[in-house]
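Suppose a colleague, Dr. K., hands you the sequence of a protein chain of 250 amino acids and asks what its three-dimensional shape might be. Before reaching for any lab equipment, you can write down a predicted structure in token form. Begin with the sequence itself:
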Amino acid sequence: MDKLIELKDISAAYDDNIVLKDVNLCIKENDFIGVIGPNGGGKTTLIKVILGLLKPQNGEIISHRNGSDTFCGYLPQHSNFDKQFPISVLEVVLSGLMSKKNFYKQYNSEDKKRAKELLKTAGISELQNENIGEISGGQMQRALLCRAIISKPQLLILDEPVTYVDRHFENEMYDLLKELNKEMAIIMVSHDLGIISSHVKTIACVNKTVHTHESNIISAEALNNYDCPIDLITHGNLPHRVLKDHTKKI
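The predicted structure, expressed as tokens, is then:
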């Protein structure tokens, strides 16, 4: 697979507080990377560096951008979208094409057709003419996912994408991401290792630095080695927690 972006010996900080140090990460075409790590470990900072929203203190970022296509689509965990702004759900999705449009160029029929198809896939096509401020948080998340992918980016970054969606759409969204991954690389931040390990191809543990595990299966021992205190939790009729193996024989 061809490379999309490389981070080499990256360090990043806010004022004098170093959050990431000596980070090396290579993102390739059709990668599907699950990003895990403790709160405060630097997951959001890593995303900001990749998006170009935070300039690293040290290191090098190498972009292998292919042609003039949109490079990156982004779905944040929390949207700062002004719900009082008079704009429809369909217009919100279409706004994901603004990087390809100049101020005076209108959306054409093909743009609108794609936006409507995405809304249908997301299960909210009946809301296309609703004001964005009148829909629920889960519906908003679906609309913003459509907005993130309408330009067919080379890389899609998702920060806790299922925070506000119901379980039914969560399953549908993972099916959609599986199809999207045939066309673009995906980075998905999540606290739910049990869920993402069923869908991603590799796992990156972020805790001040980045340890990449070239598989979607990662052991408790590996998490300890990476200094990544993540709980392995599953659900069922009797919710339970998977504990580490006992080393002491009884």
